[in-house]
Here is the input.
Amino acid sequence: MLNLNIEAAKTAANFINSKFNVEIPTTAIILGSGLGTFTQKVQVLQSIPYAEIPGFPASNVVGHKACLSLAQLDNGKTVIVLEGRFHYYEGIPTSQVVLPVTVLHFLGVKNLIVSNAAGGANKNFAVGDLMIIDDQINFTGNNPLIGHNDSELGPRFVDMSEPYSFELIELAKNIATKINLSPKQGTYLSVSGPTYETRAEVRAFAALGADAIGMSTVYEVIVANYFKMQVLGISCITNMATGIATTKHDHSEVVNAANRVADNFGNWVKLIAEQI
Ligand code: HPA
Here is the structure.
């Protein structure tokens, strides 16, 4: 079996191309839980609900709007914005979790900004921090590239020495300084979810080098690297991870915290996207 759903991705890309009927931008942004207000800061030119895109799985996570938009930034540049993503913990196969990124490849996208809500495993972090992801640990026990590989599309063994573009990390840092933001920087570790971690798991993951823990993103970044996209990742620390946090977890806490930093996140990402 092919690891990626190439035929479905081509069909979806053709559909999006025919709907937008303009030159497709080369930069795309995937918005994580609670970060959807980004679209209020840009001029949305056209929007397609995921439900209308052939092959896109049905998904129902609170805090996600589920549509793909063409948006214009203040400097006139256009970007594709994906509000909401598909998660492995929903029972969705990895090929479907990464379908949007596969579709972006067939649309000609070269730069991908991914964002997510994450729990802080680094004790120097605080709720409301934004973290530039500079590396990742895939602790899900799966990999979206398992299966037959079509070598016309990408290599069997994918180099992951720069999963997040060093150049884009520098750009993000420089822009943050200009707008008085002090983002953290660190390693994002993904579990499959849907359970939050135990105290022992958080201690173990922190010892492994995790600064932030989430349930998404790593598969998308693996596939983006397979397709040789330049990736920038930003985590919004919506809660401290289990054992560091003083209270129990609740998804509404995650969405509320993301909503509180969405303004800073949006201003920053908009300026970054303008300069990519
Ligand atoms: N753990 C895993 N995923 C998360 C968390 C967390 O603490 N917060 C937001 N997503």
In short: The longest helix spans residues 251-275. The longest strand covers residues 230-240. The domain at 6-275 is CATH 3.40.50.1580 (Rossmann fold).
